[in-house]
Amino acid sequence: MSNLTFGIIKPDAVRAGNHGKIVDRILAAGFKVRGMKLIHQSKKQAEGFYAVHAERPFFGELTEFMSSGPCVVLALEKENAVPAWRDLMGATNPAEAADGTLRKEFASSIGENAVHGSDSDENAAIEIAYFFSKLELV
Ligand code: CMP
After folding, report:
1. Sheet with 115-117, side-by-side order of all strands
2. Is 81 in contact with 7 (CB distance < 8 Å)?
3. Which of 66, 70, 82, 63 has the alpha carbon at shortest distance from 6?
4. Which residue in 46, 53, 68, 106 has the most C-beta neighbors within 10 A?
5. Burial of 101 (0-12, 13-18, 19+ CB in 10 A)
6. Is the CB of 110 within 6 Å of ligand 1?
7. d(CA 107, CA 88)
8. What's the rounded Cα separation, in Å, for the pair 104 and 8?
9. Contact 114 CB / ligand 1 (< 6 Å)
10. Considering the chain, what percentage of its residues have pLDDT values greater than 70?
């Protein structure tokens, strides 16, 4: 199990001004922020990032939304980082997210669900490398 994972504070949460509160929650949960930047993805960048979902019916909606405004990309460190970050985020669909999770508090729908997190160590490494150069990781 790796100690690194990748996260995004999505455009809905940044638009609502919740990115500071979410970073606060991440730090309070014991993660170290190894990389963090505010970016505005192009449609092409979002399509590349979510390429595994290219055949899904919601791919257009997803990549349109992810390129609709600024988001915060994060490289996060903690013991068992991937499951720890998924636990803090809560279920993909906020209607199913447990109390105390970020999606319960900040997400409005399955599409606009405030945060993204890697689903495996392998994808965490790929996703961190998609947005960060080695020099941008401390
Ligand atoms: P994320 O963890 O960023 O990875 C893929 C995203 O696709 C997921 O979060 C959801 O926001 C989004 N997604 C999953 N299912 C649907 C759906 N049925 N409609 C719209 N978006 C979806």
Report:
1. 32-39, 71-77, 4-9, 115-117
2. no
3. 82
4. 106
5. buried
6. yes
7. 13
8. 16
9. no
10. 99
Q: What is the pLDDT of residues 5-17, one digit of tens each?
A: 999 999 999 999 9
pLDDT digits 0-9 by tens, 118-127: 999 999 999 9
With 0-12 / 13-18 / 19 or more C-beta atoms within 10 angstroms meaning exposed / middle / buried, residue 7 is buried
For the segment 47-61, the average pLDDT, to the nearest whole number, is 97
**Contact of 99 with 57, CB cutoff 8 Å:** no
Percentage above 90 pLDDT, the chain? 99
Q: What three-state secondary structure class fits 27? A: helix
Asked if residue 115 lies in contact with residue 9, where contact means CB atoms within 8 angstroms, the answer is yes
- Say how far apart CA 94 and CA 126 lie, in whole Å: 26
Rg for the chain (alpha carbons), in Å? 14
Cα–ligand 1 centroid distance for 111 (angstroms): 5
Task: Return the ∠ at Cα 9 (arms to 137 and 26), rounded to 5°.
Answer: 70
Does position 1 have pLDDT exceeding 70, yes or no?
no
116 is a catalytic site residue: yes
| Confidence tier at 2 by pLDDT (50, 70, 90) | confident
